[in-house]
Write a structure and sequence with these properties.
alpha+beta; Diaminopimelate Epimerase, Chain A, domain 1; 13-stranded mixed sheet; six-stranded mixed sheet; 45% strand; globular
Length: 255
């Protein structure tokens, strides 16, 4: 089986073409294992007619959408023969329009954010004797956004990992720790429900931006900083995500 490994801001994926009679969930667990497999945050299964993708997290669960993953898929499609600077890619969250920009960046039309207002816009949860405030929002997939002054303190406390799997979320949830660095800059660290802490998260950048905009904490266009790179998010209510995607290597996986 031929595979391609791509990454977006360090969020890495193994991309393969769709095959018949394959248990993708099991394959994702084996191939994404960093010690005994190739190593990645997720497996992306691509189809060409029409362009589409399915993404499986490193724990085998399937995600509805991935902001970094879809840019990697777009780059893969472009690298392997799909022509045109603008095209749609089918996901479980619908068709997303992508545009290949000059300089290698890829612009994704992420659509609108949907906020969960059940129990109020701002929600609270008692975690290790501390009250954690968070905002629940869906941008391709579900996120809980937590604003904090000291992200690394919250990482030390395990806030994101614990909130992700608490009883409020039987299916778990992605959790974004967000620091507002100014009207045009956010710093984010994301714990993904199917992959743990990742170097970057595209839907997490969009979710953080959507909540910050609703709270009037940032401008219409912001740069979101992650551990290994930055993404540009803009558009106001109709969110656009822009960033790069790079091929790491190509290989053959045999079992």
């Amino acid at each position: 089986m031929i595979f391609y490994k791509y990454h977006g801001c360090g969020n890495d994926f193994i991309l393969i073409d769709e095959m018949k009679n394959v248990d993708y969930r099991s394959l994702a667990v084996r191939i994404c294992e960093r010690r005994t497999g190739i190593g990645a945050d997720g497996l992306i299964v691509c189809s060409r007619h029409p362009p589409s993708m399915r993404i499986f997290n490193s724990d085998g669960t399937e995600a509805s959408m991935c902001g970094n993953g879809i840019r990697c898929a777009a780059r893969y499609f472009a690298d392997t023969g799909i022509s045109g600077e603008k095209f749609g890619v089918r996901t479980l969250d619908g068709v997303k329009t992508l545009e290949l920009c000059r300089g290698g960046e890829i612009l994704v039309d992420m659509g609108e954010a949907h906020f969960s207002t059940a129990g109020g816009f701002c929600k609270t949860y008692m975690l290790d004797g501390r009250k954690v405030l968070f905002y629940e929002v869906f941008v391709g997939c579900a996120h809980a956004v937590v604003f904090c002054d000291d992200i690394y303190r919250e990482l030390l406390f395990g806030t994101a990992a614990k909130l992700s799997c608490c009883e409020l979320f039987p299916q778990k949830i992605n959790v974004d720790l967000v620091r507002v660095d100014g009207r045009r800059e956010l710093t984010v660290r994301t714990f993904e429900r199917g992959a743990g802490y990742t170097a970057a998260c595209g839907t997490g950048a969009c979710a953080s931006y959507a909540v910050a905009r609703k709270l009037k904490l940032c401008d219409e266009k912001v740069t979101v900083h992650f551990e290994l790179g930055s993404l540009c998010v803009s558009g106001g209510e109709h969110i656009r995500l822009c960033g790069g995607a790079e091929l790491v290597f190509k290989g053959e996986w045999g079992e």
